[in-house]
Amino acid sequence: DAKTTQPPSMDCAEGRAANLPCNHSTISGNEYVYWYRQIHSQGPQYIIHGLKNNETNEMASLIITEDRKSSTLILPHATLRDTAVYYCIVRRNQGSGNTGKLIFGQGTTLQVKP
Amino acid sequence: SQTIHQWPATLVQPVGSPLSLECTVEGTSNPNLYWYRQAAGRGLQLLFYSVGIGQISSEVPQNLSASRPQDRQFILSSKKLLLSDSGFYLCAWSTRQRTNYGYTFGSGTRLTVV
C-alpha cells in the first residue's frame, strides 16, 4: 500500500473550516484514500474515503486532486470536539486475496481552539 | 446493527504474568478481525489479523499471540508479559461487504505492565 505524508500538527479556530492535507504521490490506480480520526484514549473512527471523485458526508468532505497524488480532508465548521489525530491512509479495498489491512502512519494532530 | 465489544477497559499486570484480552463482534458473520497496539505517544501498530476461524497472521515479531476460536471472537494472549507490552490495545473488524466503511474499532484496553 502507498505511503502517505501528513503535517504533524495543525491548529484551527473553532467555527472555521479545517483543511488537512495529505500527500500520496505513489498511489496506484486501485488504491483508495481513507481518513480516520482518533480522539484521545478512544479507538479510531472512520470519517470518509474516496477513489478519485470528491466525496462528502455528514462529517467531512474529501477533495482528491486530479492526478490523485494528494488529497485534503475538510471539516467545514470545526468544533472543540474535532480535536484529534487525523490519519490519511491509502490502501486497496478488500477483495479476493486482499485482507484489507489498514496501516496507520503518524497522522496530523488537529487542535481546535476557541 | 453491528457492534464490537472489547474488555477489560483497563488492566494492570505484573511482569511475567499471563495476559488474555478478548474481542467479540455481533451482528455480522465471517468478519476480518484485527489487533492493534498503541504505545504511549506512538502510532497504531497492526499486530495480528485474521480472515477466518483458526487463521492468524502476525505482522510483527513479539511476545504476544492471537487466536480465533470462533467466527466472531478474537483473543490476544501472552504467557509472560514484558514491560514493553504496555500500551493501548485495540480490536477492529471489517468485512468485504462493509468495504466502503473501512474498519470499526472497539473502545480499547489500556494495559500497564508493572
Shape of chain B: globular
Quantity of strands of chain B, as a count: 11
Structural class of chain A: mainly beta
Q: What order do the SSEs of chain A take from the amino end to the carboxyl end, as H and E?
A: EEEEEEEEE
Distance between the termini of chain A: 37 Å
Report on the biggest sheet of chain A: 5 strands, mixed
Q: What share of residues of chain A is helical?
A: under 10%
Q: Mean pLDDT across all residues of chain A, rounded?
A: 91
Number of strands of chain A: 9
Distance between the termini of chain B: 38 Å
Q: Most extensive chain contact?
A: A-B, 23 and 28 residues
As a percent range, the share of strand residues of chain A is over 45%
Order of SSEs of chain B, N→C?
A: EEEEEEEEEEE
Helical residue percent band of chain B: under 10%
Described by the principal axes of the CA atoms, the overall outline of chain A is globular
Question: Which consecutive residue ranges of chain A, at least 5 long each, have pLDDT under 50?
Answer: none
**Annotation field: number of helices of chain A:** 0
The stretches of 5 or more residues of chain B where confidence is low (pLDDT under 50) are none
Mean pLDDT of chain B: 90
The Cα radius of gyration of chain A reads 14 Å
Largest sheet of chain B: 7 strands, mixed
Would you kindly provide a written description of the structure presented here, covering whatever features stand out?
The complex is a heterodimer of chains A (114) and B (114). Chain A has strands at 9-13, 18-23, 31-38, 45-50, 55-56, 61-64, 70-75, 84-92, 108-113. Chain A is mainly β and 114 residues long. Chain A is globular and about 40 Å long. The model of chain A has no long low-confidence stretch (mean pLDDT 91). By secondary structure, chain B is mostly beta strands. In chain B, the strands form two sheets. In chain B, strands 2, 4, 5, 6, 9, 10 and 11 form a seven-stranded mixed sheet that branches. In chain B, strands 1-3-8-7 form a four-stranded antiparallel sheet, with no helix packed on it. The radius of gyration of chain B is 14 Å and the shape is globular. Chain B starts with a strand and ends with a strand.
